[in-house]
Design goal:
This protein is mainly alpha-helical and 457 residues long. It is built from 19 helices and six strands. The chain starts with 13 loop residues before the first helix and ends with a helix.
């Protein structure tokens, strides 16, 4: 008989049993369910609902059940719906009537909220660690390659020369924001809901604060109805993960392009690439392509949880069972993606000559050439026009700036002097940029030194 079966005649239809079972995915919560149940049992013992032997038997039985699950000998059945019912049924099998007392003052509604919060505290902590590992890899690679230069792009067109390290640090700051966001999300998750019951609390003298301390939560939920119906913490978690994945996808896209034969700025680690079943020469960036592809699914997870929650009346509704699959998928995906990207950044090799050639064969110093004229008193819009006409003339004649003579330059403005060639030299440009946060060697050095301290806290 099911734990709630007293109200009903006959058996549940087998189709409904199969349709409503969540054990195939919520078994991932077993460790947290057992830990929460153990704390609940200890609290029931403290307030006199359980005697000493009953408390001991329940705690011991729960520990044995955990070992059975981890050893792979625990039997799961769709007829028991979820992980909570599986553990309770097995506990009653093992210790008898004492096991029937465990659920005193508790509902699966507050129980599952507790389990999910514990799961997220654990796994989002791992996500935060994965972010920190990636941050360290980015800083180390930026420091190693801090003198390499490359084109910076807008609209996928070469725009201005930048240090390769400045490019890496741009992603560093994205992932640093992700880490700070994840820390804030974890604070919102750190709320202990157990004791809220199905929706209205309990007439039992439950010591919620004892359980809170035992399980390591920062604070108690303040409203029992909100506690069992709230899944904002799930939305927050998937949102934070989706942003991380979006950043990983953008970096993957860049590296896929940069590693193509047409660009060839970087070479990806062999361990993260695959070959072709037909073409022996191929080295495909599969790991990065999969990050890019899986990002779409994680964004789908976010839309999924929004759609589940948008029309739910107070308080608990069975729809909430569907929150776990998108959450578990998002969490597992981002952990793997962060590990892969960390390995990629650590093992990536750059072709400095190729990047420098791309810089030297472009018109990227046009901005600095316009600023050269501006510093001589030419209004910037006029200087912009002068250099634009100069670029067009060079394109018509198949020349670059380095092919021009001072006489040719003076044909566009008499203010050009020989020192303009030094001013538009890429190395000089990267030394002369003065603004904080700019793509200059000095600013990159400052950023790297500051962030090395952050990474070693």
């Amino acid at each position: 008989m099911k734990p709630w079966g007293g109200r009903f005649k006959g058996k549940t239809d087998p189709v409904l049993e199969r349709f409503s079972a969540s054990i195939d995915f919520d078994r991932a919560l077993y460790r947290y369910d057992i830990e929460g149940s153990t704390a609940h049992a200890e609290m029931l013992g403290k307030i006199g609902v359980l005697n000493r032997k009953e408390t001991k038997d329940i705690v011991t039985g729960l520990g044995e059940i955990r070992k059975e699950i981890e050893a792979g000998i625990f039997i799961f059945s769709g007829s028991l719906e979820d992980i909570h019912m599986h553990i309770e049924a097995r506990l009653i099998e093992k210790i008898g009537d004492a096991g029937k007392k465990l659920h005193t003052g508790r509902s699966r509604n507050d129980q599952v909220s507790l389990d999910m919060r514990m799961y997220l505290k654990d796994h989002l902590g791992n996500v935060e660690k994965g972010l920190m590992a990636l941050l360290k890899n980015l800083v180390q690679k930026a420091e190693k390659e801090k003198t390499a230069i490359m084109p910076g792009y807008t609209h996928m067109q070469r725009a201005q020369v930048v240090p390769f390290s400045h490019y890496l640090m741009a992603y560093y700051y994205m992932f640093k924001r992700d880490r700070e966001r994840m820390k804030n999300i974890l604070q919102g998750i750190d709320v202990m809901p157990l004791g809220s019951g199905a929706l209205a609390g309990s007439t039992m003298p439950l010591d919620r604060d004892l359980v809170r301390k035992r399980l390591g939560f920062a604070r108690l939920s303040e409203n029992s109805m909100d506690a069992v119906s709230d899944r904002d913490f799930v939305v927050d978690a998937i949102y934070g993960i989706a942003v991380i994945m979006m950043h990983l996808s953008r970096l993957s896209e860049d590296l896929i392009i940069f590693s193509s034969n047409e660009v060839a700025f970087v070479s990806l680690p062999d361990a993260l690439c695959t070959g072709s079943s037909l073409m022996p020469h191929k080295k495909n960036p599969d790991a990065l392509e999969l990050i890019r592809g899986k990002t779409s699914r994680v964004i789908g997870d976010l839309f999924s949880i929004f759609s589940i929650l948008k029309g739910l009346p107070m308080t608990y509704n069975r729809d909430l069972q569907e929150d776990k699959e998108p959450l578990f998928h998002a969490v597992e995906t981002v952990q793997d993606a962060l590990t892969i990207m960390g390995l990629c950044i650590a093992g990536i090799k750059i072709d400095r000559k190729r990047m420098e050639h791309a810089v030297s064969e472009s018109f990227m110093p046009a901005v600095e050439m316009a600023e050269y004229l501006t510093l001589k008193g030419v209004p910037f819009r006029e200087a912009h026009g002068v250099v634009g006409r100069l670029v067009r003339d060079c394109e018509d004649k198949g020349k670059t700036f380095k092919d021009l003579t001072i006489g040719e330059l003076k044909g566009f403005s008499p203010l050009f002097e020989k020192d303009v060639f030094a001013c538009i030299d890429p190395q000089t440009i990267l030394k002369n940029r003065k603004t904080e946060g700019a793509a200059s060697f000095k600013e990159v050095e400052r950023q790297i030194n500051a962030e090395k301290i952050y990474c070693n806290r």
